[in-house]
Amino acid sequence: MGTLRRRAGAYGLLAPGTIWLVLFFLIPLYFLGRLSLNVNVGGVYYPFDWHWKNYSDALSLYDTQFIRSFVYSLVATLICLVLAYPLAYAIAFKAGKWRHAMLLAVVAPFFTTYLIRTISWVTILSDESPVVEVLQFLHIAPSGQVLATPAAVVSGLVYNYLPFMVLPIYASLERLDTRLLEAAKDLYADTKTTFLKVTLPLSAPGVVAGTLLTFIPATGDYVNAEFLGSSNSQMIGNVIQSLYLKQQEYPAAAALSFVLMAIILIIVLIYIRFAGSEALMGEEGAAI
Amino acid sequence: MSATPMASTAKAPRMGFGKWLREHAVLIIGLLVIAYMLIPIAVIFVFSFNNPAGRYNFTWVGFTLDHWKNVFGIPELNEALWTSIKLALLTTLFSTVIGTMMALALVRHQFFGRRAANFLIVIPMATPEIVMGSSLLSFFLILGTPLGFRTLLIAHVMFCISFVVVVVRSRLIGFDRRLEEAAKDLGATPFETFRLITLPLILPGVFGGALLAFALSIDDFVISNFNAGTTVTFPIYIFGAFQRGVPVEVNCIAMILFGITVLAMGFTTWQQRRAEKMASIRPEQEEEVVPLPPVSAAT
Amino acid sequence: MGKTRMSRKRRRALTRVALAFMALAATIVLAACGGGIEELPENYGGSGGGNEVKVEGKPSGEMTISNWPLYIDKKTVGDFEKETGVSVKYVEDVNSNEEFFAKLRPELAEGNSGGRSLFVVTDWMAKKMHELGYLQEFEPAAIPNFEKNLADNLRGASYDPGRQFAAPWQSGMTGVIVNKEKAPDIHSVCDLFDPKYKGKVDMLNELRDTVPLVMKCEGVDVEHATEADWLKAIEKLKGAAESGQIRRFTGNDYSTDLTNGNVVAAIGWSGDAVQLQADNPNIEWRMPEEGCILWSDNMVIPVGSPNPTAAEAWINYVYDPVHQAQIEAYVNYVSPVEGTKEVLLKEEPEIANNKLIFPPASFTKKCSIQPSPDPKEEQTINKAFNAVLNG
């Protein structure tokens, strides 16, 4: 009896949010699919037509940008991982009383508008900035030009998505029971073995969550390519934006969006199958 | 124990620099990465004092306080900022209420469809913004809804709900139900229990969720750009201004927002500490909450 | 609580069936929803005629004007407000014809202008909007200055022969802007493809500026260009973009690349060059050997304009040579108002004698009016060009 009332209460609490998400997240996806099958009649109107050609056109015309987006995103994610793991480790185990300050420093970039901090890289990476001159000296950027290259775009992606990698890894490292590390030491494991056999596997959920949270948004990003790139480094996000907001080629744009979503979904599903699903949908204590 | 495994400092050999480096390698790398993350913020800050020759604020010319003195002197910028703030406040209100309700339902109750609801909440966080933005735009285009503040609000609340739920939920998990039961035993109605016990204790979590929603809304560009029509929010203004020269005042405003957010975060953390002391539960501890037998079972 | 495992499996299966059914039902219901862009707009089909401004008495009230950035001096709006009593909100939110159109179009299709009484778009966009029925035609009696002072070479323009809906705000020339120290021998758009300037060249992301210039330097008569001509020029651009010859396709921001030294030459607009020269005397606008592209940005009054009377008053005001001189001294583009040069000769002779601002006919003899692709070919050409921009 009480269960029924409580159930009703639960549903009541759940209702507004569920309705909002269904109405404005799931249903628009249907309309995205529908628009992708519409046909562009001279730019005047766009009726429904089972126009599957949009998909074949999209894939053939923009395959370069798709591949480019995934490559940039993958490279950026890997670089983020390499940078974030030591940082998360340092904060979790080596920071002591500076832990909160360091966490604040990690999250601080979020407090400046995304666009502004990307634009500040235009200043930092401009052709005659000291940073670029140093890079040129070190032969990392021999031509003295960093902006308007793929490297600039990828470095922008790394910068903007680094916190998304640090925080989940930190969260899972922080939950690590230090007694396990002590036990390993008692069993004569050296630092490297302890790390490889104890810490790393136990932090895997954080790594999984972090890589997904970095890779997925980075693939669809277009702000970095817009400010830091050139026509040779445009990503699929730029194309979608141009098709929607400039060319008004709505069906083609919708088809591209849909393909992007589908590919990401497949990648995520495969990844989770290998890595385990608690990381993403953690019931007790989200890894985020 | 008399024979400790720790060598006394007097007998330990002086550590060479190489060894010190290896010992602290991780920490040093960590600090370097943090420096890397803070460089652009420093650049934004420094260039807010720049006095550029032309319209573009990319090379350092000279120091001036003019732009700080004139921070709110550009009407279009102010309008965009004000639109963003209004939007963020409304978004925070709606998404926090809706999200907190959802979190309460998900943590407290076992019910049919719980896993589905969990799934529904996580998917928006895992979808690229461009897909969310373009699907909403497709939705509005086909239904013929005029784009503007209302569509922006709908979009913003949509993507903020999930984040609020996650934050509040992680707070709720560490919550000691015994306090609620104690209140009930003392004769409080469910509503009074909620109002006097539950709500104040989860408030830091709710506030944290609200803060996150506010930050996400004010910073959102991609979804907004797709669904704003001719309305201009702060990030949309900056994007449009990039080509013709972002005014220095934008840097100043960015730093002001930065300062406010840091303060708000500090406030939330402080409140969190207080609430933890009140509830005498520290979620960081690894121990499980020991389930006590219900008080009423004494009969 | 006593639930058996059997019942849980059944429940899960039932759940799946129920969800599938709900999804199907939802799809059917949603399929019925529609409208918006899936349907032909109501007022489509005419050639745009019939929307006429009805001027009512003296101008009053308030008005919002949308214009391109940096296209007006600081005093004109205030002066206009004082003279007419109209309160003007002047917004610089037109960054690109296509993006402005894409944003505004849903409202224009409903007969709204989003609160704007007047906005400024380039020739081809004005023509397109007129054809779609989004613009109102002028009431000539309220704009005598316009009728009287419009420059002769702008009368009878192909996009608005009767000058019924588009009143030029400023004209301009697209050519090459070079840093004459670093790129002394660039005198033609084709020189921008010279490998020794690889990565040091910017081009405009505007289809109707960049591609016609490339066509011209290949010897094509752009005013009679075929689709094949357009596509061939776009192919050439594609090769140059992919090889890295062209650093970026830009909007207004080529000026920052020039001043920073990121590029040594760019396709650019005459008005910008005058300003850039003030910062760096080495930067100059050069008339390409094969000629430039001439264009105008036009004031248009949209349907649903809240205060068309005030809008026409504005047009009339800026076509007074004295007021135009004030605008011209700041904007530095080509004035469409006859008599401006005489006014400026007295006050600011360097501007009056600047051939970029008052180009003599001999200077622009090889220039072409900005062409626009045939409507049937437009979609293909647009797609091809944007494919180059998007890499």
pLDDT average of chain B, as an integer? 82
Helix proportion of residues of chain A, in percent? over 70%
Count up the domains of chain B: 1
Number of strands of chain B: 0
Number of domains of chain A: 1
What's the story with the biggest beta sheet of chain A? none
CATH topology of chain A: the name is: MetI-like fold
User: What oligomeric assembly is this protein in?
Assistant: heterotrimer
Q: In one word, what is the shape of chain B? A: globular
Second CATH tier, the architecture of chain B: Orthogonal Bundle
Secondary-structure content class of chain B: mainly alpha
Give the low-confidence spans of chain A: 279-288
Q: What general form of chain A does the structure show?
A: globular
Q: Quick one: CATH superfamily of chain A?
A: MetI-like
Order of helices and strands of chain A: HHHHHHHHHHHHHH
Number of helices of chain B: 12
| Arithmetic mean of pLDDT of chain A | 86
CATH class of chain A: Mainly Alpha
Number of helices of chain A: 14
Structure notes:
The complex is a heterotrimer of chains A (288), B (299) and C (391). By secondary structure, chain A is mainly alpha-helical. Chain A has 14 helices and no strands. Helix content of chain A is 73%, strand content 0%. Chain A is globular. The C terminus of chain A is likely disordered. Chain B is mainly alpha-helical and 299 residues long. Chain B has one domain: MetI-like fold (Orthogonal Bundle), CATH 1.10.3720.10. In chain B, α2 packs across α12, α7 crosses α9 and α9 packs antiparallel against α12. Chain C is an alpha/beta fold. Chain C folds into 2 domains: 169 residues, Periplasmic binding protein-like II (D-Maltodextrin-Binding Protein, domain 2); 143 residues, D-Maltodextrin-Binding Protein, domain 2, CATH 3.40.190. Chain C is built from 14 helices and 11 strands. In chain C, α11 packs across α12. The radius of gyration of chain C is 26 Å and the shape is globular. Chains A and B meet through α1, α3, α4, α5 and α7 of A and α2, α4, α5, α6 and α7 of B.
